[in-house]
Design a protein that fits this description.
Helix content is 75%, strand content 0%. The chain is mainly alpha-helical. The radius of gyration is 16 Å and the shape is elongated.
């Protein structure tokens, strides 16, 4: 996966995230729709974190003369529970 394809995926996910956040107000009377959108929003947020993590890995490898294609997407648990 190239930097460009990762960036394009990030842009699509950000667009979806904005749409879901905008629909929250509309979904207030419909508990099922609200819950469904919140679950999808949570999944989108995790996927965004994973994409950003992969992009940072690729850029770091390139910066230090390594092959960016050796970077691998980490699992949601690893990315979401990362301690700085």
């Amino acid at each position: 996966m190239s930097d460009e394809s990762i960036t394009a995926r990030i842009e699509r996910l950000v667009t979806e995230e904005k749409e879901l956040r905008g629909r929250e107000q509309e979904d207030q009377p419909d508990d099922a729709a609200l819950e469904k959108d919140r679950e999808r929003l949570s999944a989108v947020e995790v996927e965004l974190d994973r994409c950003w993590d992969l992009l940072r890995q690729r850029r770091a490898k390139e910066e230090f003369g390594q092959d960016p294609d050796d970077a691998e997407a980490r699992g949601a648990g690893t990315v979401e529970n990362y301690k700085q």
